[in-house]
Amino acid sequence: MAHTHLWRHLWRHLRRPVRRGAAIAGASLLALGSAWGLMPAAPALQYSDGTVAFSYPLRLTDSYATRNLVSDSNATYYLTIDFPAAAEEPLDRVEIALEQGYDPTFRYRLDAIEAFADTPDGRVPLPLGQPSEGCDSRTLTVIFDPPAAPGVPITLALRPVRNPRFGGVYLFRATAYPVGEVTRSTYLGYARLSFYERDRGRDRWP
User: Fold this and answer.
1) Is residue 135 one of the residues assigned to a domain?
2) In which domain of life is the source organism classified (predicted)?
3) Residue 44, pLDDT score
């Protein structure tokens, strides 16, 4: 009876359509999953029109800047994303859009952007593709290459050329995309970063 039940389970699994996300994940995701002690990602949620979506929502759980003075050139913005195993689909990319706060010269150091998997044994670097930045939309796209496997939180380390030139609260909208030809994005939340004007009184000689 046990063997019969097992074969029925395997047959149901094999009859499922093969999705592009599962194919792209490949050996790299299996290797990462083994290193973290996780099972390989299951087939993701797919709509009748072929649209692929995460089976469970991801969310932004933490964000902060290491330096908060305006125009500081040595800051890093850390954004941590909860990426549960229930999401099932590998993470293809994350878009970070500056939606509140004004500085037309604000740019990122694309070659310095990093991403990490927050495993029980510490942070493990994740390989990235070439990030891109839209000047008009003020949107940064961070691409995972290969796509990141679900099951552990992911932290992005974004490094701007310098902090915004004007003090105030800046809101960065984060959106995640699964792997697929046609995908449905997931809104992660807003990274809320505050920047402060320099105390000019401290710059004066006594």
Assistant:
1) yes
2) Bacteria
3) 54
What CATH number is attached to the domain comprising 60? Answer: 2.60.40.1510
Burial category of 124 from C-beta neighbours within 10 Å (exposed 0-12, middle 13-18, buried 19 and up)? middle
70: which 2 tokens?
């305006």
User: How many other CB atoms are there within 10 angstroms of residue 85's CB atom?
Assistant: 16
Enter the tokens of residue 100: 């509140």
Residue 205 located in a structural domain: no
**What is the enclosing helix (H) or strand (E) of 6?**
helix 2-14
**Among 62, 58, 54, 60, CA closest to 84:** 58
Between CA 163 and CA 107 the distance in angstroms is 9
**pLDDT tens digits along 160-172:** 999 999 999 999 9
What range does the domain containing 98 cover? 3-198
Report the pLDDT value the prediction gives residue 28, as an integer from 0 to 100: 40
Q: Is residue 193 within 8 Å of residue 63, measured between CB atoms?
A: yes
SS3 42: coil
Cα separation, 188 vs 95, in Å, equals 10
Q: Which tens digits make up the pLDDT trace of 34-52?
A: 344 344 444 556 666 778 9
**How are the residues of the chain apportioned to helix, strand and coil, as percentages rounded to the nearest 5?**
20, 40, 40
Is residue 102 a part of any domain in this protein?
A: yes
